Prior knowledge:
The structure holds 2 protein chains of 2 kinds.
Chain A: E1 8-9, E2 12-13, H1 17-23, E3 37-38, E4 51-54, E5 57-59, E6 62-64, E7 67-74, H2 80-90, H3 97-109, E8 112-113, E9 119-120, H4 122-133, E10 140-149, E11 152-159, E12 164-171, E13 180-184, H5 186-192, E14 208-211, E15 218-223, E16 228-234, E17 243-250
Parallel strand pairs in A: 10-17, 14-16
Antiparallel strand pairs in A: 1-2, 3-12, 4-7, 5-6, 7-17, 8-9, 10-11, 10-15, 11-12, 13-14, 15-16
Helix pairs in contact in A: 3-5
Chain B: E1 10-12, E2 15-17, H1 19-29, E3 33-36, H2 43-52, E4 58-62, H3 69-75, H4 87-95, E5 101-105, H5 112-122, E6 125-128, E7 131-134, E8 141-146, H6 158-166, E9 169-172, H7 180-189, H8 205-217, H9 222-232, H10 244-247, H11 272-293, H12 301-313, H13 321-328, H14 332-363, H15 368-371, H16 380-397
Parallel strand pairs in B: 3-8, 3-9, 4-5, 5-8
Antiparallel strand pairs in B: 1-2, 6-7
Amino acid sequence: xxxxxxxxFLGKPIxxxxxKILKEVPKREKSKNASPIVAPSSSNLTDADKYILLPSMQHxxxxxxxxxxxxxxxxxxxxxxxTHEVLKKEGAYMLTIRQFADFLSLLKSGKAFDGxxxxxxxxxxxxxxxxxxxxxxxxxxxxxxxxFEDGNILYHKFDGxxxxxxEVKEPLYNYIKTDKESGISLSDWLKKANVHGLPTPKxxxxxxxxxxxxxxxxxxxxxxxxxxxxxxxxxPANAVSSLGVRVARAKN
Amino acid sequence: xxxxxSTELMQLAGYPVYMSDIADACLLGRLxxxxxxxxxxxxxxxxxxxxxxxxxxxxxILGRNDMDTRELFQQINLEKLKTAKTSAEIKELTDKINYxxxxxxxxxxxxxxxxxxxxxxxxGFVEVNGKAYPIGRxxxxxxxxxxxxxxxxxxxxxxxxxxxxxxxxxxxxxYFSPKPSDTLEILAxxxxxxxxxxxxxxxxxxxxxxxxxxxxKQSTPFExxxxxxxxxxxxxxxxxxxxxxxxxxQWPAAITSHAKGSDEALVLPLSTRAAKSxxxxxxxxDSIVQGKAGKPVDINLLESMMQxxxxxxxxxxxxxxxxxxxxxxxxxxxxxxxxxQTTQAQVQQQEDNIRAGLEMVKSRKVNQKILDRFxxxxxxxxxxxxxxxxxxxxxxxx
Lengths: 252, 398
């Protein structure tokens, strides 16, 4: 049986593919967190009132289940990889940029529930939102689950049915590829964010500084007295006392 | 046509695909179809509508537990088989049989010997004294219906095993039941509770067979061959280096640690036979969607293959039923949606490597650095690319 070798594979030409692959920096063969993580039940949380329920959401082919997001940050002074490890031991995980954007939208909506199902008042939600985004001292920052490699984004997808978390690698697309130090609009970013949560080229200008993904770097959200930043160029080795993580858990 | 069901089973290239389209795809691809469902779910009517397309070149058999093979042969006009003494006489009798479509309602009611002959009829032959005699003049297909309960796919169950072997597409008609608006139309049309057996359609046998022959002649896109290989070999791979096939009954118990929660412990690889059915169904669905569009449309080959996989695999016995029950409330289609999502992510991660591999094949030189890109469940690509590079080299020498 003669098999014809195509000139294209899944719509893209094969010409030049070898060069592209061979020029790539050798990568680790397997992601550190590639094996799935079994998430624990959230029903035995004794402090469910310290969490905000982020309702399940579908964005293109990305979806996540109902998620409990802590109101406060934890695990300060730990680098990005260490933070993942600590969260994994707790059966928790880090918010993806997409989840973080949805979380900010939820806070801005003024209507949300805590982990016990009790509706939170607007003032409480406003406080959490200001803690994350308000330009003022002291410097606050939190890790987000996104690593950038060769035009791809690595993050974790949670499967609510199997209660597992698996690292995925997907090509970046439809996002602003250059830094916007002059700023993008926070509300427009939240409104038009792409499937990975990154701002799309149609995002209006504003005051949120944006640093576009860079190979080998990870994402975080930073805010201080001068400005707020969606920072996709953070070194995973950073570890400072003002840098923590917002613990997330799948809700049962 | 009486069967009405506007519940979408999938969308391909933006066109909805319904239960009747799956039935048409089975006719086009010559794939045996088994419809599981409770009484009144419309499966018999759909089968009846399929018969309508074949004029008198079709036979309907109602499965009963007191039916024997003699009665079966009587129904298909082979009652004289018992008196035929030589192979030539038997052949003369079977040659006269021109059924293209055999429909069996309540198949599970049949005793194993009758079921065995029915499965043979589906595949286009009759077995007499250990010898196969063809019927159907080159095109035959079986459509069966019945309610089997939940346990029929267990390997200990003879019917389950036979079904997996001989029925290429098994679909739960209750899962994709008609919408209330369909029921409204059905009820408004008439209140006859019986299945309509009145034939009013034109005999489309020739047209269907011609289309089938065209489909068979089409070459399979390379993407589909790779995806089918992933379903056969990629899904066989376990992270600890073991093969699910080699594990046999130890699967999924032998899958430990975090892999326990992944698709490693959820789904077995497809058999080569099921992979062929998947490709054939995908090709037939593509053709049906092109027909709906009335013009050439770009169909996402990955999506088409994955949807075909869903309807071939769901009841083929590849799923870990315990895990399906525990994590997906027993919903096999939802389970496969999760498997498909993982597969799509896997392909997305590998597509650049595959393109590089294909360029390597065209260069006719094996490049180890390219082959080394394929690890884990994609290791099978090393063998494929090496083989193809050698083939290309040989082609050049000739």
